[in-house]
Specification:
GO terms for molecular function: methyltransferase activity; nucleic acid binding. This protein is mainly alpha-helical. Among the domains are: 31 residues, no CATH class; 60 residues; 37 residues, no CATH class. The protein contains 9 helices and 2 strands.
C-alpha cells in the first residue's frame, strides 16, 4: 500500500490497463481487505469447495475416456467419477473436447483434421469391401448410431420416378380439396307429393300442407 485512496488506485489501474482494469467496487473491496491485515492476493479456501477444480490434462483425458466409453453419460455422473465441479465438467466438454449433446449423446461439435482423414480412410475401406461382396457387406455392416442399413427392394428406374413425380404433382395441385368437407344426402327416402287445389292461393296451400305433415 502506498497510502493511496481507492479512487487514486483505480485511476492508476485505468492508465495502465485501460478497459481491462478491474471495477471500482473490486478495488474498494481489496483495499478494505489489506487494511484489515490481509497480505495475500490468492483466494482463501472456502467451505464446501472441492479440492480439484483445475482442468488438468489428466482430468481432461479421464473425462474423454468416460465419454468415449458411454456417449450417453450424464454430466452428474462425470462429476461423481472425476471429483470435479459441474461447471468444470461442462467447460471440459464444450471448450476442451469441443463436444455437444445431440440426441442424448455427446458427439464432437467440429471435426478436426485427424477426424476428417480417418473418415475418408474408413469410407474408402468400406467401399472396397462393398465392391468385393455387396451382399455380405450389407448383411454385416452396422453403423455406430445403432442404425441398420438394408438394401431397398424397389428399383428406382425412370418409370418409377416419373410415376412418383406425377403423384406428388397431383397432390400439390389438389391440396385445396383436402380442406373441403363433403355432405352426403340420403336419396332413397320416400318422396311425399301434395297436389295443389284449383283456385287456391299459395298461402292456403302451404298452411294445409304443414298441418297435414304434422298429423303424419
Amino acid at each position: 500500500m502506498k497510502g493511496l485512496t481507492p479512487k487514486e488506485i483505480k485511476a492508476e489501474l485505468d492508465n495502465v490497463h485501460s478497459t481491462s482494469a478491474p471495477a471500482f467496487a473490486t478495488v474498494y473491496n481489496w483495499v478494505n481487505e489489506f487494511k484489515h491485515g490481509r497480505t495475500s492476493t490468492c483466494d482463501a479456501p472456502r467451505s464446501g469447495r472441492r479440492p480439484i477444480e483445475a482442468a488438468t490434462p489428466e482430468i481432461i483425458d479421464k473425462v474423454h475416456d468416460i465419454v468415449l466409453t458411454d456417449r450417453r453419460v450424464k454430466a452428474r455422473e462425470l462429476v461423481e467419477a472425476t471429483g470435479i465441479s459441474h461447471g468444470t465438467v461442462i467447460s471440459i466438454l464444450h471448450e476442451q473436447l469441443v463436444m455437444k449433446k445431440l440426441s442424448a449423446r455427446w458427439v464432437p461439435r467440429l471435426l478436426t483434421v485427424d477426424h476428417k482423414r480417418d473418415r475418408v480412410t474408413i469410407s474408402k475401406q468400406c467401399l472396397e469391401m462393398f465392391q468385393r461382396n455387396p451382399d455380405e457387406f450389407l448383411r454385416r455392416f452396422i453403423t455406430v448410431d445403432e442404425t441398420w442399413i438394408h438394401p431397398s427392394k424397389q428399383t428406382i428406374n425412370g418409370d418409377y420416378y416419373a410415376a412418383l413425380l406425377t403423384v406428388l404433382t397431383t397432390k400439390k395441385k389438389r391440396s385445396h380439396l383436402a380442406k373441403k368437407k363433403v355432405l352426403f344426402h340420403q336419396d332413397n327416402g320416400f318422396i311425399r307429393a301434395r297436389h295443389r287445389w284449383p283456385n287456391s292461393t299459395n298461402s292456403a296451400t302451404n298452411c294445409f300442407s304443414i298441418q297435414h305433415i304434422c298429423q303424419i
